[in-house]
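We were asked to recover a plausible sequence for a given structure. The inputs and outputs are reproduced exactly as logged, with field labels preserved.

PROBLEM: sequence recovery
POSITIONS: 268
GIVEN STRUCTURE:
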């Protein structure tokens, strides 16, 4: 009798173990086979919503090269950038500016001394304006709330971005993205300027992102308006920049494209 009871107890124990193992197996998930959105979890909720309104940071991170053209009175200016390594090439009838990932260089296509943009700062300047808000997904950026911007009776909430020491050529720069409170699409940019001599480095300048275009699922600027400013507020428009022939791809541009030609001047 005692032996029968022991056998029965052992059978019940083994059955319970089997059921417990079955339950654990049923709720176990193989996350290697799951498509998880882990990238956006490292950003504040508001910034994530802004990214999402523009196509999503995860889709942006799949892209490896960006090219856009700005029509100008004296010729089209074409900017080409490798997104992951930030090599850059700007071509214009009057000049060429390049950055091979380490060195910045330029070629003067006009007679006489080069009097164009400072290549050290210009090679990624318009790219930075153009690739917003996604450039604020870079490392070394501090994020905080900003006072909203009210312009012509409409109020735009803001997020402020600053840089850790040693990040970029001018880590003192500050940026504020002002967004539509209903759609979370970026509408304004406030920014300080630290690379032009004689300018107030604490005064905020402003650009309005007036038109957007969908490029491979990412919302990128089609038109940007530069504004006059006073007391850290925009006042009136002073010029419009258009962006055409935009290419955003998942293929990087060969590094040789950004190599300085023999006639180039290397910027120290």
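RECOVERED SEQUENCE:
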């Amino acid at each position: 009798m005692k032996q029968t009871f022991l056998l029965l107890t052992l059978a019940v124990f083994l059955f319970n173990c089997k059921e417990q193992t079955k339950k654990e197996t049923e709720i176990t998930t193989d996350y290697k086979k799951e498509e998880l959105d882990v990238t956006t979890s490292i950003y504040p909720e508001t910034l994530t919503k802004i990214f999402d309104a523009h196509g999503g940071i995860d889709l942006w991170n799949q892209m490896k090269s960006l090219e856009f053209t700005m029509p100008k009175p004296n010729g089209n200016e074409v900017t080409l950038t490798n997104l992951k390594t930030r090599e850059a090439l700007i071509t214009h009838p009057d000049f060429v500016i390049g950055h091979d990932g380490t060195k910045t260089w330029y070629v003067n296509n006009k007679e006489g001394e080069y009097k164009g943009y400072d290549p050290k700062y210009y090679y990624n300047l318009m790219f930075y304006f153009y690739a917003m808000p996604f450039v604020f997904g870079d490392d070394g950026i501090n994020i905080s709330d900003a006072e909203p911007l009210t312009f012509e009776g409409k109020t735009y909430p803001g997020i402020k971005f600053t840089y850790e020491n040693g990040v970029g050529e001018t880590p003192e720069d500050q940026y504020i993205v002002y967004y539509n409170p209903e759609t979370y699409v970026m509408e304004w940019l406030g920014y300080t300027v630290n690379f032009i001599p004689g300018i107030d480095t604490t005064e905020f300048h402003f650009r309005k992102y007036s038109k957007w275009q969908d490029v491979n699922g990412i919302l990128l600027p089609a038109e940007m308006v530069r504004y006059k400013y006073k007391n850290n507020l925009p006042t009136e428009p002073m010029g419009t920049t258009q962006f055409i022939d935009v290419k955003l791809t998942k293929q990087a541009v060969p590094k040789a494209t950004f190599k300085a030609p023999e006639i180039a001047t290397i910027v120290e």
